[in-house]
Amino acid sequence: MVRMVRLLCLVVIGGYWLLIHTTAGVATAMEKLEPGAKFGGVYHRMLPNNPPTLDPAFMSDVYARTVATQIFDGLVQFDALLNPIPAIADFWEASRDGRTWTFNLRRGVRFHHGREVTAHDFVYSFTRLLDAKKPGPLTVFLRRIQELKAVDRNTLQIVLDGPFAPLLAVLGMANAAVVPREEVEGQEDQFSRSPVGTGPFKFLRWEQDKEIVLEANDRYHEDRPFLDRVIFRVGGTFEGMFAEFLQGRLEETLIPSGRTDEVRTDPRYRQYQRFRKPTLSVLYIGFNTQLKPFDDVRVRQAFNYAVNKERIVREITRKGSIPASVVLPPGMPGHDPDLKKYYYDPDKARQLLAEAGYPDGAGFPVVQLWDASRAEATRAELAAYQEYLAKIGVKVEIHSETDWPTYVSLLNAGKLPMFRLSWTAVIPDPDDFLSRQLHSSGANNRAFYRNTQVDQLLDRARKELDYKHRIALYREAEHILKEDAPWITQHYNVFERLYQPYVNGVEVSFLGDWAIPMKKIWLKKSPAAGSKGAIPSVQPGR
User: Fold this and answer.
1) pTM reported for the whole predicted model
2) Distance CA 193, CA 276 (A)
């Protein structure tokens, strides 16, 4: 039987978004089985670092989202084209002024410990996100909520103080997942390490620096996932993980820097599946704009002109990435390919540095450039920054902190003057990149950047429901950001992985690695022939 749901359509009429429901058939997992699809097997993935937490309210990094996306569900989720579609909310509707949203929940959805989910659980979960004493990554996004109300057991109402364009995209974030109060209240630390959700996989165990193990949720509301278990192997180098993949101990692997051309041309890799797709992500070198000398815009501009990013991306990182010119990546609404970019011009860099009071670098303090990567290629990449900045009289020291939680703590404390970071979109909306990272109140504003005009533009864009007007606001903000130069935008990441030939059902969107729905993956081979530790195939109960 095909389950019928009401899907939301957005139509722009007279500058306003009208919300219209239509009906579509959604097949269950069993009904969408490909010929030969099998239940069972263990899937091994790499996870470069331990997540700081698996509590959805406080996740702010890609490592946590990669795991938590498999454990938790929210009201909505994204399809392969990044459209919001039903998750725990069966359907929803909004008032004509865009302020009042009503979500009807599926009946019979249960937390992993057995209790049925109700609208009261969402009220509790969202209230945690909005708690001023414990602000989380979604707090800034959802401050427009005036009221959260459980109309009845299966109906949730959200009232906003005004229209908020990114709302559905925000509700599709991993942080907006529902959690059970009785498992969280008074035991937050334990919950962050042993979470309970409603998703396709249940948390089993977490051994720091070794592995995080999830097992299939036999009572998942979209039907049991195909895999019996997912094991995230924590730590190690990219080269080491690549070697383990070739030895058959991982189902997928990143392609290390320097091996991209080899993988593309060497016939021995043709037995594997190669997935390549641009992602909504950017890697950048950030400046702490609160600290001297980076409180001077001329210094930040000088550093941008001093570095040949195209050469670094083409000859050093060698991942097939796209050299970056602005913050918003190609494919993200608001990306402006015509915005004048910084080009390699060491003479211009020296001129700006002299105007800032450092002729030929005289008197310029030694700069600490920090990163958290274990990859050998990153060492060469950062050495290039040393080389280029030395040409304008600036000495750079490279510092590394490979423990990700410690690195994040140092960033949040404002102790790192210059740092290497990447950002992968959590929601396919410009607000996710610009407001979260470059609004003065942004939860991930590690540059401590503040510009009142940029804040005002981003605040207006959040409320603007006319698409063209909204995009124009983001482009105006990007023009100012380009001049203020709080970052050196190095490159836009490209998702590229090798998969074992027996892996099926991989669905990669522009959100990249963390958003891959593991519930759709199945293994062609018999679980008994799989990697060490595989457990017997289990058919889902019905």
Assistant:
1) 0.73
2) 33
